[in-house]
Design goal:
It contains 15 helices and 9 strands. By secondary structure, the chain is of the alpha/beta class. The protein has one domain: TIM Barrel (Alpha-Beta Barrel), CATH 3.20.20.210. Strand 6, helix 12 and strand 7 form a beta-alpha-beta unit. Helix 8 crosses helix 9, helix 9 packs across helix 10 and helix 10 runs parallel beside helix 11. About 50% of the residues are buried.
């Protein structure tokens, strides 16, 4: 399928991802769609998360809200990393105050064989939402996203969020055949989900590996990287920039780029100039303001924004962002001021 021409528009985000000159440093915020916005909370009142993710009208409105309010350089699709799992038949729900909860956690190869595959028509509601958003956004690019195989596996194995990932690591160490069978299937599901978004018009794709920082470098290399590579390499023919992000992944930033990313997301623990040294000069970076700094008063916020922009000059390209998602109690006006500040400081 040919991509819509809008996906090839050389916006500041796409230019930065490719390491090309930009008119301003592009800025967007992870979890900008929802979370801190009162208009989002009003719209979501009484509507379960996964229901909202499956309604194109709600997805479009929630995705647009931060674009209208903050003037960010990209929209990110309102969705959740478990949406493709639910579409593939997994009994998963998002419990308020808890997160994703899986009714029948995976423990056996038979369960893996019953999982998926995902067919594009099973996420037709996502394609419809993306197509509608692309038409409404005009020159503003849309970022599609998905959870990486490891992070999805951690929820499926643990049955929900976990601090120590003990069941996940037990399978990884003690049942490698089962482990790789599960991640192979999840890589296929994730790849289909991302391709659907790109083919509907998303200009950039981000792969979230939220829990990869729980692993050693050696374990990441052998147990996780091959499956993330399957996903990112499987997107190469689409011609859209690929962002790879994880939390606490300072020790594997180079690998996260080498598995097929054009842009490596960096959390707040590693300065961007040091991240560039680890990743190499051939990829762009994204990040990396600590989300907690937004509560510290404007003088502190401005100081940190200036520092990060200075460190980001070491990179081939820099997409300004937080080092993780917007916290729910964040003042939205601070986000708007950050966008204005980044643009003012970097205008060519």
């Amino acid at each position: 399928m040919n991509l819509p021409s809008v996906a090839r528009t050389p916006t500041p985000l796409v230019l930065a991802a490719r390491g090309e000159p930009v008119p301003v440093t592009p800025v967007w915020f992870m979890r900008q769609a929802g979370r801190s916005l009162p208009e989002y909370r009003a719209l979501r009142q009484g509507i379960p998360m996964l229901e909202a993710c499956q309604r194109p009208d709600l997805v479009q409105e929630i995705t647009m809200q931060p674009v209208r309010r903050h003037g960010v350089d990209a929209a990110i699709l309102f969705s959740d990393i478990v949406v493709p799992l639910r579409a593939a038949g997994v009994d998963v729900d998002i419990v308020p105050g808890v997160g994703p909860v899986v009714a029948d956690p995976i423990r056996t190869l038979e369960q893996v064989h019953r999982l998926g595959p995902l067919h594009p028509e099973q996420v037709g509601f996502v394609a419809a939402a993306v197509a509608g958003l692309v038409a409404e956004l005009g020159d503003v690019p849309l970022i599609g996203f998905a959870g990486a195989p490891f992070t999805l596996a951690s929820y499926l194995i643990e049955g929900g969020p976990s601090k120590n990932h003990e069941r996940t690591k037990a399978m990884m160490y003690g049942a490698p055949e089962l482990w790789h069978a599960l991640l192979d299937r999840l890589a296929d599901i994730t790849l289909v989900f991302l391709r659907v978004q790109a083919q509907a018009g998303a200009s950039v794709l981000q792969l979230f590996d939220s829990w990869a920082g729980a692993l050693s470098r050696a374990d990441y290399l052998t147990a996780v990287a091959p499956h993330s590579r399957t996903v990112l390499a499987g997107l190469a023919d689409l011609g859209v920039p690929r962002i790879h992000f994880g939390v606490g992944t300072g020790e594997v930033l180079d690998v996260m780029g080498d598995v097929g990313a054009d842009v490596v997301g960096v959390d707040w623990r590693v300065p961007l100039d040091e991240a560039v040294r680890r990743i190499g000069p051939h990829r762009a970076v994204q990040g990396n303001l600590d989300p907690a700094v937004l509560f510290a008063g404007w003088d502190a916020v401005e100081r940190e924004v200036r520092r990060i922009l200075a460190e980001g000059r070491a990179a081939r390209g820099h997409v300004f962002n937080l080092g993780h998602g917007v916290l729910p109690d964040t003042d939205p006006d601070v986000l708007t001021r950050i966008v204005d500040l980044v643009h003012d400081l970097t205008a060519a």
